[in-house]
Design goal:
Layout (H helix, E strand, L loop, with lengths): L1 E2 L6 H14 L1 H13 L2 E5 L7 H6 L4 E6 L13 H10 L2 E5 L5 H14 L3 E5 L5 H11 L5 E4 L7
Parallel strand pairs: 2-3, 3-5, 4-5, 4-6
Antiparallel strand pairs: 1-2
Helix pairs in contact: 1-2, 2-5
């Protein structure tokens, strides 16, 4: 995990925002929140090891973007359990996105960090792991407001 906020200059964040507008429009708003509003961005890559040191240093408010949506989703069991539990315990809202990325969802969750100075978690996963991620969040924080974005099923 890494807090990219201090590692990137304003010019670099401008370039990332422009690139996100084209290549990853769902993340464009998040990059602009980091650039313009003083929100920190924590990137949690797939198969992360212990994040204890990084979480202890985490600047707040933050948006934690947990990526479990590469060519395969591995689920929460492949992340360091104590670090994942600690991260979930630090946030005030979460989203589990198991569908195509939707900019409105990223922007809505990110706006909690901007407007209310709250830490938030966005889990990017695939449909086969959405239940596992939702259960992992509920196990640590049963009443945590969590937005679930899932694929639409075929109607009969």
């Amino acid at each position: 995990m890494r807090d990219f906020t201090h590692a990137l200059s304003r010019d670099r964040l401008d370039a990332l925002a422009a690139k996100a507008n084209v290549d990853a429009p769902h993340l464009a708003g998040i990059v602009k929140m980091v650039r313009d509003c003083g929100v920190h961005l924590l990137i949690v890559p797939q198969l992360s090891r212990s994040m204890s040191e990084e979480l202890a240093k985490a600047q707040q408010p933050f948006i934690a973007l947990l990526g479990d949506d590469t060519d395969r989703a591995v689920g929460p069991n492949f992340f360091d359990k104590s670090s994942l539990d600690r991260l979930i315990g630090m946030v005030d809202a979460a989203a589990v996105i198991a569908s195509a990325p939707r900019a409105d969802v990223y922007n809505t969750v990110g706006s909690l960090a901007v407007l209310l100075a709250r830490n938030v978690l966005i889990v990017e996963t695939r449909p086969e792991q959405e239940i596992a991620w939702t259960q992992a969040i509920q196990r640590v924080r049963p009443c945590l407001p969590t937005l679930l974005c899932t694929v639409e099923t075929a109607r009969q």
